[in-house]
């Protein structure tokens, strides 16, 4: 049987099996972080050392010589990085038709893009081994894709438990986005993760014989629903 081409060829489906644990990177055109306004949510974040407020200082000085009592200061501030919390479904159903390989490639690409944006990343997987925290929240690094490559697959789909863990991580973040990478093949009906700036459900179900559960979950949560780039 002739082998199928990878995702670097637009319009082609990925291989139905990822031999040797290979992961497949999605096309860059089909990949996008949340809207720019959410990528860098500007919030006041004082850092060490005040900054001299020249305008207020000159007003206080008036026409006389500058003295220490005239000095006015303001706190420095910077934009907080957005935390991208990636929740990756590694259950048995994701092993069919190369779904897991494709999802791992999407997660790897997300980490790389977040690293270039100066954002933070956390990575969770859920499947037969339960919920695993593969990358705790921290600055995104391109080397983080190694954690994605090492993900195995199989077993059940503890989605609700994974979201509880994600919620605990995101409770400590001031600006975050949740990425749920799944085929939605579970009977669980978990509640949405709260306190996030944006939630994206990336649907890896069979595009021809899908159950529509990811779309239904996104509608119930008020989240963005994206079809995986098959």
Description:
- This protein is α/β, with parallel strands linked by helices.
- The protein has two domains: 25-39 and 80-227, von Willebrand factor, type A domain (Rossmann fold), CATH 3.40.50.410; 44-78, no CATH class.
- The protein contains six helices and eight strands; from the N terminus they run H-E-H-E-E-H-E-E-H-H-E-E-H-E.
- The chain has helices at residues 36-39, 54-61, 99-117, 145-149, 159-170, 213-221; strands spanning 50-52, 73-75, 83-89, 120-127, 130-139, 176-182, 198-203, 224-227.
- The strands form two sheets. It has a six-stranded mixed β-sheet with strand order 5-4-3-6-7-8, sandwiched between helices.
- The radius of gyration is 22 Å and the shape is elongated.
- The relative contact order is 0.16.
- Residues 1-26 are annotated as: Disordered.
- Residues 86-184 form the VWFA domain.
- This is VWFA domain-containing protein.
Please sum up the structure shown.
With 230 residues, the protein is an alpha/beta fold.
Features:
2 domains; six-stranded mixed sheet; vWFA_dom_sf; alpha/beta; single chain; 230 residues; 6 helices; Rossmann fold; 8 strands; VWF_A; disordered N terminus; two-stranded antiparallel ribbon
User: Shape, please?
Assistant: elongated
CATH fourth-tier homologous superfamily of the largest domain: von Willebrand factor, type A domain
- What is the CATH topology classification name of the largest domain? Rossmann fold
Q: How far do the termini sit from each other?
A: 20 Å
Please tell me the total number of domains.
2
Parts with pLDDT < 50 across at least 5 consecutive residues: 1-30, 35-48
- The second-level CATH architecture of the largest domain is 3-Layer(aba) Sandwich
Strand content: 15-25%
Average pLDDT reading: 79
Radius of gyration from the alpha-carbon trace, in angstroms? 22 Å
Largest sheet: number of strands, sense, barrel closure: 6 strands, mixed
Sketch the topology as an H/E string, one letter per element: HEHEEHEEHHEEHE
Q: SS-based structural class? A: alpha/beta
Q: Taking strands numbered 1, 2, ... along the chain, how are they ordered across the largest sheet?
A: 5-4-3-6-7-8
Estimate the helix proportion, in percent: 10-25%
- How many alpha or pi helices? 6
Annotation, overall tally of beta strands: 8
Q: State the CATH class of the largest domain.
A: Alpha Beta
Organism: Polaromonas vacuolata
Protein name: VWFA domain-containing protein
Domain VWFA: 86-184
Pfam family, one: VWA_2
């Amino acid at each position: 049987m002739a082998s199928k081409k990878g995702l670097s060829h637009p319009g082609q489906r990925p291989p139905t099996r990822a031999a040797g644990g290979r992961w497949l990177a999605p096309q860059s055109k089909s990949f996008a972080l949340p809207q720019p306004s959410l990528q860098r949510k500007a919030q006041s974040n004082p850092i060490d050392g005040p900054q001299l407020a020249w305008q207020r200082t000159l007003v206080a000085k008036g026409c006389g010589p500058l003295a220490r009592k005239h000095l006015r200061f303001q706190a420095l501030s910077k934009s907080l990085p957005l935390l991208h919390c990636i929740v990756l479904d590694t259950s048995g159903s994701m092993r069919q038709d190369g779904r897991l390989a494709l999802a791992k490639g999407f997660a790897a690409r997300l980490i790389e893009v977040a690293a270039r944006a100066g954002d933070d990343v956390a990575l969770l997987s859920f499947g037969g081994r339960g919920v695993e925290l593969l990358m705790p929240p921290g600055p995104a690094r391109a080397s983080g894709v190694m954690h994605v490559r090492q993900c195995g697959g199989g077993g059940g789909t503890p989605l609700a438990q994974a979201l509880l863990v994600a919620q605990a991580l995101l409770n400590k973040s001031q600006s975050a986005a949740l990425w749920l990478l799944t085929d939605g093949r579970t009977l669980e009906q978990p509640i949405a993760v709260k306190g996030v700036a944006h939630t994206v459900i990336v649907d890896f179900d069979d595009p021809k014989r899908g159950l529509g559960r990811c779309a239904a979950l996104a509608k119930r949560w008020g989240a963005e629903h994206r079809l995986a780039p098959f």
